[in-house]
Amino acid sequence: MDAPVSSSDPAPGHAAPQIQSARTRKAFAEQELRLISALVLILGAGLFFALPFVLSIGSVVFLPVVTAIVLTIILSPLADKLAGWGLPNILASLIALLTFIAILLLALALILQPAVELYDRLPAMANQAARRFGEFQQQFAWLAMANQELAKLMGQTDGREVVLASPSVIQQLALATPSVVLETLLTLLMTFFMIEARVRMRQHLLFDRTSFVTSIKAARALREMQDRVAAYIFTVAWINGCVGVVVTIGAWAMGVDAPVMWGGLAALLNFIPYIGPLVMTSLLALFGIGTAETAVLGIIPAAAYLGLHAVEANIVTPAILGARFTMNPVMILIALSYFSWIWGVFGALLSVPILLMLTAFFDNVGRPNLIGFVFGEPLFAENLLDLAREEPSTEG
To answer: Residue 387 gets which letter from DSSP?
Structure first.
């Protein structure tokens, strides 16, 4: 005998429409989620290309704020340690900021004082370098003559060159000094108040959330950003300090003038990835050519520094920092060019800390799957809309 059919079981004729309806709703939810993701990408791309113009125009406002945020992240561990020793929070914040100012002033003094002494020798060095380049030009005079003959054959004529008068270096410094002093004071004041308010900011970020999971994610993201940026800056500072010491000793052994200045420049420029060592190599080459007896002897300091940088960048720094701070060189160059375009030298110095902060943030929040999104995958590993992953329940 056939088993009786329960009244609660859906009839076979009604199952197919319900399954089809569920699939339709799921496909519609996936299309809706993909449309929202596309709009998010478009808005993000527009913000990425529009932000430089806003930040560069308002650099007087935005540059001190961003610099203060980075300095707060760097100096907060020192303030926390001082507060753990029993010092009041305001005193610990002040000592942390004064420590940074003292280190910065000491570094500038080591560099600027010898640079001022060498300033009087610049005309003689420039003449020497010009003679060296003149010798090179005489060796390649045939190339210039061939270029002139080619220009005559193509019918090109010499045109007059109009040179516009520009302000001198002294005039530019005089005009820039008030704004630089104002921005420096604003940065230091904001840094102090941010460091002093770090405990209240953490409590507000952690305990004023409506969800416990959100509080945990916020705490993890904040801690990761602070630990990653502070550890990277302190580690790189120690490595760059050692590079500066080695350059100082090497410059002294080779008889280069002002070895302390060259060591300080090497340490500071090494904070700027790729571009800083290239600038340092160029400066050593120009100085060596302008002061040495022959061009070959003048290139030796630059070649020695280039070999030192190759060992430091490819062996020492990766071994000390490890995989935690390994970043894509392409992303570093993009961040370097992006923030240098906005804020110049200060943007180049802030590019790597900002990139570390963004990397730590997206590691905790979730990185967008840009390549996978092009081929139909979700934009995020965990969709913001659970509707796209859930199977609708069938009706009884």
So the answer is: G
Q: How far is CA 268 from CA 39, 118, 241, 271, in A?
A: 42, 19, 9, 6
- Indicate the domain borders of the chain: 30-47+58-116+181-388
Least confident of 98-102, 332-336, 373-377: 373-377
User: How far is it, in rounded angstroms, from Cα 305 to Cα 21?
Assistant: 70
Q: Using the predicted structure, report yes or no on whether residue 380 has a pLDDT greater than 60.
A: yes
Residues 47 and 49: their CA atoms lie apart, in Å, by 6
CA distance 62 to 54: 9
Note the pTM of the prediction, 2 decimals: 0.69
Residue 257 phi/psi, 5-degree rounding, is -65, 145
Average pLDDT, the chain: 75
Question: CA–CA separation, 273 vs 271, rounded Å?
Answer: 6
For residues 226 and 364, the answer to whether their CB atoms sit within 8 Å is no
Mean pLDDT across the stretch 62-77? 88
Q: ∠ CA(171), CA(176), CA(178), 5° rounding?
A: 120
Rounded-to-integer distance, Cα 234 and Cα 354, Å: 15
Q: Which two tokens stand for residue 98?
A: 């004064």
- C-alpha triplet 261, 262, 265: angle, nearest 5°: 85
Identity of the residue numbered 218: A
Q: Is the dihedral of CA 383, 211, 73, 345 positive or negative?
A: positive
Q: Which amino acid is at 112?
A: L
Write out the two tokens for 118.
């060498």
Distances (CA, A) of 155 to 148, 150, 152: 11, 9, 5
pLDDT of residue 164: 47
Q: Write down the pLDDT at residue 94.
A: 92
